[in-house]
């Protein structure tokens, strides 16, 4: 939706407050938070400005989502989704971005988070299936038992992480596959990030239709 006209002073005040909130919190505010933040005694008094901003093309409001205000006309804040690459090729490179996902439309997430599609069935018993989309935080130090993405011999892998006495164990969740044992200081190993969430592949195709009404 294109911007149709300039904003009144009151509309500009609401718009600027929403933009500042999203920039600080990495998520959109609720209507109650906007009203409280701007000193409105009743949400209905502020809601008229939200409707005007939506009509003029400055925001898009998804009324069935509590934090359903989207700023229009700004640079996309989608997270990149990376594909698997042959061993030795750069993994976290622009050339390896195969998709993107508006994760911050639904939850708060660090700016460094990225997505990765699950390949294979080595994590089947942890309910990670081929085609699922996992969200990975490269800034979160892994704890024993957490699921991580790591590079082993130049190739990305998703496994459960354990570290003890200088040895890292990357454990699959499928008895068909053997654990990977590697020394902490080995050049064959590089930690990429800790898995912090996922979306089932069947859900991903429909998620916008379901919640972004």
Characterize the structure shown.
Strands 4-3-5-6-11-7-8-9-10 form a nine-stranded mixed beta sheet. A two-stranded antiparallel ribbon has the order 1-2. The protein contains five helices and eleven strands. It has two domains: 9-71, Arc Repressor Mutant, subunit A; 79-211, Umud Fragment, subunit A (Ribbon), CATH 2.10.109. It is elongated. The chain has 213 residues and is α+β, with helices and mostly antiparallel strands. It has helices spanning 9-25, 31-38, 43-55, 201-204, 207-211; strands spanning 59-61, 69-71, 79-82, 97-101, 114-117, 133-137, 147-152, 155-164, 167-171, 180-183, 189-199. Strand 9 (167-171) and strand 10 form a beta hairpin.
Structure summarized in a few sentences:
The chain has 213 residues and is an alpha+beta fold.
Name the shape in a single word.
elongated
Q: In percent, how much strand structure appears in the residues? A: 25-35%
Please outline the major beta sheet: 9 strands, mixed
Supply the CATH architecture of the largest domain. Ribbon
Strand order of the largest sheet: 4-3-5-6-11-7-8-9-10
CATH class of the largest domain, named Mainly Beta
Count of separate DSSP helical elements: 5
Work out the helicity level.
10-25%
Helix-and-strand structural type: alpha+beta
The residue-averaged pLDDT reads 83
Order of H and E elements: HHHEEEEEEEEEEEHH
- How many distinct folded domains? 2
Low-confidence stretches are 204-213
Radius of gyration: 21 Å
Count of DSSP E strands?
A: 11
- CATH fourth-tier homologous superfamily of the largest domain: Umud Fragment, subunit A
CATH fold group of the largest domain: Umud Fragment, subunit A
């Amino acid at each position: 939706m294109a911007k149709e006209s300039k904003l009144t002073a009151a509309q500009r005040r609401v718009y600027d407050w929403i933009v500042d909130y999203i920039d600080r919190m990495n998520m959109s505010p609720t209507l109650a938070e906007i009203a409280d933040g701007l000193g409105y005694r009743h949400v209905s008094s502020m809601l008229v400005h939200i409707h005007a901003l939506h009509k003029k093309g400055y925001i898009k409001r998804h009324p069935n989502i509590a934090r359903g205000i989207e700023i229009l006309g700004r640079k996309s804040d989608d997270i990149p989704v990376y594909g698997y690459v042959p061993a030795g090729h750069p993994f976290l490179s622009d050339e390896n971005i195969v998709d993107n996902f508006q994760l911050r439309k639904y939850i708060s997430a660090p700016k460094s988070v990225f997505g990765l599609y699950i390949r294979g069935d080595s994590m089947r018993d942890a309910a990670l299936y081929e085609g699922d989309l996992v969200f990975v935080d490269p800034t979160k130090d892994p704890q024993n038992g957490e699921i991580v993405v790591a590079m082993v011999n130049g190739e990305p892998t998703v496994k459960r992480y354990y570290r003890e006495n200088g040895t890292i164990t990357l454990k699959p969740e499928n008895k068909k596959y053997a654990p990977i044992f590697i020394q902490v200081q080995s050049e064959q190993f590089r930690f990429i990030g800790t898995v912090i969430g996922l979306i089932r592949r069947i859900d991903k195709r429909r998620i916008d239709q379901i919640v972004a009404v």
